[in-house]
Amino acid sequence: MNSLVTNLRVFWQGTILSYIALFHWLEPVTYLASKVLMPLAQILFFTLLGTFATGRDTTSFYVIGNAIQIAAVSGIYGVTMSIGGDRWNGTLPYLFGTPANRMALFVGRAFIHVIDGMLGVVIGLLWGTAVLGLDLSQANLPALALTILVTTFSTSGLGLLMGCLSLITLNVMFVNNTVYFALLIFSGANIPLASLPPWMLAVSQALPLTRGIAAARQIIAGAGLADVGSLLAGEFLIGCLYVLVGYRMFRWFEYQAKRKGTLETV
């Protein structure tokens, strides 16, 4: 019981402190603008571009896809920078030197970003409803909330893996940007999966967001939780897989850093 309480305390303190450290330099107005205006800008850009290019009323397709895809802002950038920040700020040696539970430390870096990502998705959907007329009257809201949670979790799982790469690369933002924009293409947010060539479709099935976006579109169209259960299960498993791979990579980097005496990078 004492061990469980200790691990929970490490998890929670690491969660809060890493999030504060990531955004302490931002003015509140700047932070709120990034959370409120960024989803609107992305949704408007791809919706207007997509409807103009297709010549059809496909507003809901782009609004839902990009609103759910907003989860990648917190899941990719936020989580990656939370882990990489320990290296950039010189606190990684202390992290590697502590006897605290590594899984609690590792997963704790993503917890607040899952909540933050869900908030971003909700803001995106609200913008879609208020500005572009997205109809949520047929949506099963509890099922939609679960879809947002699972999708944000899976995206944060990829962020944890990317965060490990930030421990051994000098330009992790280049990698993050590449992954983020790849998700815009491969996840089905802006390009129907049916129109993708086979190799791109295969890649999309191994990425987070793909099943979550598909599930959200079905739920908003009136489907129930049972109708999208397989999609959500697949999305959750994808997220768990990325978390486990990222954790094993984190422990391997720690072993190599201690063995070589660098305590920063392999």
Number of strands: 0
Mean pLDDT: 84
Radius of gyration: 19 Å
From the spread of the alpha carbons, the general shape counts as: globular
Domain module tally: 1
Task: Give the low-pLDDT segments.
Answer: none
Largest sheet: none
Number of helices: 11
The percent range for strand residues is under 5%
User: How would you spell out the order of helices and strands?
Assistant: HHHHHHHHHHH
Helix proportion range: over 70%
Distance from first to last alpha carbon: 36 Å
Supply the helix-strand structural class.
mainly alpha
Structure overview:
There is one protein chain. Helices cover about 75% and strands about 0% of the residues. With about 270 residues, it is mainly alpha-helical. It has one domain. It is globular.
Topology:
Layout: H1 2-23, H2 28-54, H3 59-69, H4 71-88, H5 92-97, H6 102-132, H7 141-165, H8 172-186, H9 198-205, H10 210-220, H11 229-260
Care to give the gist of this entry?
This protein is mostly helical and 266 residues long. The chain is built from eleven helices and no strands.
Feature tags:
77% helix, mainly alpha, 266 residues, single chain
